[in-house]
Amino acid sequence: MKPFRFTVIAALLGATVLIPALGEAQQLSPAVRAHREMIVTANPQATEAGAFILRIGGTATDAMIATQAVLGLVEPQASGLGGGAFALYYEARSRTVTSFDGREKAPAAATENRFLTGDGNPLDFVAAWQSGLAVGVPGVPRLLEVMHRRYGRLPWWSLFGPAIFMAQGGFQLTENTSDQVGGLLALNPSCADGERLFFRDRTAFEYFANAADCTAKPAGTWMRNPDYANTLRLIAFWGAAGFYGGPVAADLVAAVRGDPAIPGDMALGDLSAYQVIERKPVCIDYRGHKVCGMGPPSSGGLGVGQMLGILEHFDLGSDPLESGAVHLFTQAGRLAFADRNQYVADPGFVPVPAQGMLDKTYLAGRAALIGDRDLGTVGPGAPPGAVGLAAPDRTANASGTSHISIVDRYGNALAMTTTVESSFGNGVMVPGRGFLLNNQLTDFSFAPRGDGGRPVANRVEANKRPRSSMAPTLVFDARGRLEWLTGSPGGSRIIGYVAQSLVNVIDFGLDPQEAIDVPHYMNRNGRTELERPVPGVTVDYDAEALARALAARGHGVDFVEQVSGLGVIQAIGGGFLGGADRRRDGAVGGQ
């Protein structure tokens, strides 16, 4: 097993990056220990960039900015300048936690019928995804600037250096990216221009694919993206204004409105008007720990909080893969998703009963519904503060997402989940700018109204932010001291991934890497999903026996490949333990 790997730059600068290695079957890497600072991301090169910034005295926010800039280059299928993010930040000096909403929003021209066909039926998801209609006003560049002004220590311009260097000089294409390109290209019935839907945009096609035979460029291909380097230089010099105004904004709007599939309606005014919203995090006490997450328009903090609040009424035993524990966890997921689908949307447009959804008495009543048998599909409850009854939205969003967890030498901590929505966003790369557009508006309900004409809370409206499942999470002990950071990509499965990571460390006493290595299971108020053991990646177990035991309790069970990318950090003994998800290219850095 090879526990360490360095690039030349990281080795010279003393930024240690530790990548959980794949050894012999079932030989799993241990958690990584650091004494001063730590970062976990889904890509080794992004981790290296952030670790370097921490090494030279940067804050968690400084490191996040450098990391995000690199992720947009080396993991473009997951996040980038054209996407959005939610960040939770703990400032050690004031001992306060706040959250920042950098979610994309609908253009001012959007209406609730955005994803309906002429006959009033919902548009096919793929057609909506691969179109200009799907693109929300990006939030990432403004989020980076807002957080740097509040919490940054190093000069703004210096934080883009690692990404500019890599974009200009080159980097190797990862197997993860290459495989996802190949998978999408294979869905095209024809590779000809005008007939190709996935990577229909010529700029993106030529960047990611071999045009001669319509195959993905293989892993290890040396890639350069000077257009991205130039865009970063503009942002480094002008700040977020270099993105939301001027030539970058003009090119972005032109790409949306000129989409070769279905044109969008974004305008320059949508970009110039975009604002990040600072929000109060949602928190719940769980077995003596204070768990804080992202509130609406994300359902992540509420979904995770509800699951924990329900599970607190049960003894989960000592084995995270025992059928009784799995049964209880999946039933908590059913109940949380029923409420999520009913109530959560942009709080600027609909009243979300966030406090009531985490009310202890209410959750005790929900927990009382759980017995020895699978509940089957459940309806939403009536939490305190719920106003009216809208129609449910059962949209299960896909995943083009990444997560960053950071603690710095000053005691600050940051958990940020960042996304372009589905893999490679809407598939269009802004010509001459080197970044992809998101398809975040497909997180809205396509049908604006449900049974009886009742409006769906998460329907499309002008300037509204779509519901998310992203769940960056910070955990504190009873004295207010930081204990854990966690978060994950994974679409609506994020809620289950994050809740499971917390149950694994709090209930089962696992360290960060052990918590990540437990095979996933969840229920999103449908069929129960299990992850088969992955040699060298997860703990081994008898998956078929667990499936039979759950079926005996009435569960419908599916084995589903999981796409988590958990990054977990534990504050322990004056230092930190970190774990990275080997289902992706996760890496831990620090010193």
What does this structure look like?
- The protein has 591 residues and is an alpha+beta fold.
- It has one domain (1-170, 224-591).
- The strands form 5 sheets. Strands 1-22-3-13-14-4-5-10 form an 8-stranded antiparallel β-sheet, covered by helices on one side. Strands 2-21-20-16-15-12-11 form a 7-stranded antiparallel β-sheet. It has a 3-stranded mixed β-sheet with strand order 17-18-19.
- It is globular.
- The two termini are 21 Å apart.
- The relative contact order is 0.19.
| Count of structural domains | 1
Sheet-strand content, in percent, reads 15-25%
Alpha-carbon Rg, integer: 22 Å
Strand order of the largest sheet: 1-22-3-13-14-4-5-10
Biggest sheet overview: 8 strands, antiparallel
Distance between the termini: 21 Å
Share of residues in helices: 25-40%
Low-confidence stretches: 1-15, 21-25
How many extended strands?
22
Secondary structure class reads alpha+beta
Report the mean per-residue pLDDT as an integer.
Answer: 93
Alpha plus pi helix count:
19
What's the layout of helices and strands?
Blueprint: H1 8-13, E1 17-18, E2 32-34, E3 38-41, H2 44-55, H3 60-74, E4 84-91, E5 96-102, H4 125-129, H5 140-151, H6 161-169, E6 171-172, H7 175-185, H8 202-208, E7 209-210, E8 215-216, E9 222-223, H9 226-238, H10 241-244, H11 246-257, H12 268-272, E10 277-279, E11 282-286, E12 289-293, H13 300-311, H14 323-343, H15 354-357, H16 360-367, E13 400-407, E14 413-421, E15 473-476, E16 482-486, H17 494-506, H18 512-517, E17 521-523, E18 528-530, H19 543-552, E19 557-559, E20 567-572, E21 575-580, E22 587-590
Parallel strand pairs: 18-19
Antiparallel strand pairs: 1-22, 2-21, 3-13, 3-22, 4-5, 4-14, 5-10, 6-9, 7-8, 11-12, 12-15, 13-14, 15-16, 16-20, 17-18, 20-21
